[in-house]
Amino acid sequence: MIRSAHAEDVAAVAALEAEAFGDEAWTRAQILAQQADPGSVLLLADGDPPAGYTLLRVAADEAELLRIAVRAASRRSGVGATLLYAGLAWARARGADRVFLEVAADNGAALALYGRLGFERVGARLSYYGTGREAWILSRAL
């Protein structure tokens, strides 16, 4: 089941963030700050601990997928796609007609998921993740 996160969920989200992103993980304070933005939503794949989460924001008619992570034990089970579909529905309901995201060009698993869900590459950011590590900008219509 996908649900909106509450303030008391942020510690579990931060732990999953650290597991999934290591040195590139957002801090609990960063997650709380983004969650507090009225144009953002933090969604959880319910469980104890949560199987995954996603964080999106909407500004005008555009949405941005800021973060998505799935616990290692739950990967390749549809949790990521379910979270993403829920986030896209949330963004569409708030007036967004397009969504953007940035993903490491070497993140094959994420690129496969995004490709299955209709995202296309629309740009790149050189050395976005450090020297020589490119990010691809992906987008799709809502």
Query: What count of structural domains?
Result: 1
CATH evolutionary superfamily: Gcn5-related N-acetyltransferase (GNAT)
Structural class estimated from helices and strands: alpha+beta
Provide the gyration radius in Å. 14 Å
H/I helix tally: 4
N-to-C SSE string, H for helix and E for strand = EHHEEEHEHEE
CATH topology: Aminopeptidase
Helicity level: 25-40%
Mean pLDDT: 94
Largest sheet: 7 strands, mixed
- How are the strands of the biggest sheet laid out side by side? 1-2-3-4-5-7-6
Q: How large a portion of the residues is in β-strands, by DSSP E?
A: 25-35%
Beta-strand segment tally: 7
CATH level 1 class label: Alpha Beta
Question: What's the CATH architecture name?
Answer: 3-Layer(aba) Sandwich
Low-confidence stretches: none
Q: What is the terminal separation in angstroms?
A: 22 Å
Give a brief rundown of this model.
With 142 residues, the chain is α+β, with helices and mostly antiparallel strands. Helices cover 32% and strands 32% of the residues.
Describe this structure in words.
This protein has one domain (2-101): Gcn5-related N-acetyltransferase (GNAT) (Aminopeptidase), CATH 3.40.630.30. The protein is 32% helix and 32% strand. It has four helices and seven strands, in the order E-H-H-E-E-E-H-E-H-E-E. The chain has a seven-stranded mixed β-sheet, with helices on both faces.
